[in-house]
Design brief:
Oligomer: single chain
Distance between the termini: 58 Å
Structural class: alpha/beta
Bound molecules: ligand F0G
């Protein structure tokens, strides 16, 4: 049995939220004690906006493989193994592959991952390799990779662990539970990036489940943000060659398109565009003003909140939660876009003093 070595501490999302999740006998749980990530008040960003709304950051970069994917992967891999599957497969812009590889390793299963060649952040590629996955770089984009995964999975008896696997989204909804557990209510708005479009509906379902059980009274409006060059849902059509600096959400034909639209419409929210420039501004601001380093895609939700705030979208006193989906260390190249490399100084105190404030 995999109890994650936890005795009396946080037991991972399956055991914590068991009564809201599909049934799974305890001996089949595969866990790295994911979840229980901090909800951090963004006092400095609030000030930046004039202090009329409250902003909380759900820092999902502090999961075991440093992204929100672990919440769904614990359930998807546990159930795959419980059903006798020997191997999992996924297409990925990076984070899903890192998470799938880690949980498969923990479960003693094989992981196969297809990534767009040369288009995923280095840290994520290294994770998948280190966890022992068979990684293939596809000469195409994420959408091509996912199409191939759908075609080959059955032929080889592989379990798909992309978010078209329903257990992924079931697990991911636990993040909404945690937000409510901390706040004692649901936020007024929940903002997050939209790529393959699973997470927005996972959160929405989580909030709905908590309301059905009488744990919360209100429901948030879901605010999804796509990058300008990869915004199929906003534009209402597939984007053949998606482009954005936020490689995690460089997706032109999201698998969970309808589910995301449903979450948007049922909640009375919206899905809008943010530009790469807006994403990078929020990315830098989070790191330099709040001490929170997320990857560029993760900053899309915050960028969107800034944009909406400028338009006077929020009522005074609104409570807004933004999910920061992945850790900044995953993408060591992106900071080059917003920071200068440090100058070199002679190993001499006078030279150093002279350079400190230059
Ligand atoms: N943020 C990050 C850091 C991601 O890795 C992803 C998706 C998203 C946001 C978007 O979430 O797909 O549920 O709308 N990454 C997937 C992957 C596609 O392969 O790692 P979504």
């Amino acid at each position: 049995m995999d109890d994650g070595g936890c005795s009396g501490g946080w037991p991972g999302v399956i055991r914590k939220y068991r009564k809201f999740l599909p049934e799974l006998p305890d001996e089949h749980v595969v866990t790295l004690l994911e979840g229980n990530t901090p909800l951090i008040r963004a006092y400095n960003l609030e000030k930046e906006l004039g202090g009329d709304i409250s902003i909380y950051l759900k820092y999902e970069g502090l999961n075991p493989t440093a992204s929100f994917k672990d919440r769904g992967m614990t359930l998807a891999v546990s159930i795959a193994r419980a059903r006798g599957s020997q191997a999992v497969v996924c297409a990925s812009t990076g984070n899903t592959s890192a998470s799938a590889a880690a949980y498969a390793a923990r479960a003693g299963m094989k992981a196969y991952v297809l990534v767009p060649k040369g288009k995923i952040a280095l840290g994520k590629l290294i994770q998948a390799l280190m966890h022992g996955a068979r990684v293939l770089g596809i000469e195409g984009n994420f959408d091509d990779a996912l199409r191939i995964v759908r075609e080959i999975a059955d032929k080889r008896g592989l379990t798909i662990v992309n978010s078209i696997n329903p257990f992924r989204l079931e697990g991911q909804k636990t993040a909404a539970f945690e937000v409510c557990d901390v706040l004692g209510r649901a936020p007024d708005f929940h903002a997050l990036p939209v790529g393959n479009a699973g997470n927005i509906s996972a959160y929405w379902n989580g909030y709905k489940v908590y309301r059905e059980h009488g744990i919360i009274e209100n429901l948030p409006k879901m605010l999804g943000f796509q990058a300008e060059g990869a915004a199929p849902i906003v534009r209402g059509e597939v984007v053949e060659s998606p482009e954005t600096v936020a490689s995690a959400i460089r997706i032109g034909n999201p698998a969970n398109w309808e589910k995301a639209v449903k979450a948007r419409d049922e909640s009375g929210g919206l899905i809008e565009i943010v530009t790469d420039k807006e994403i990078l501004t929020a990315y830098k601001l989070l790191a330099s003003r709040e001490g929170i380093f997320c990857e560029p895609a993760s900053a899309a939700g915050v960028a969107g909140v800034f944009k909406l705030h400028r338009k006077g979208f929020f009522e005074k006193g609104a409570l807004v939660v933004c999910t920061l989906t992945g850790h900044g260390l995953k993408d060591p190249d992106a900071p080059n876009l917003v920071c200068e490399l440090p100058p070199t100084v002679k190993a001499d105190p006078v030279a150093v003093l002279g350079a400190l404030d230059a």
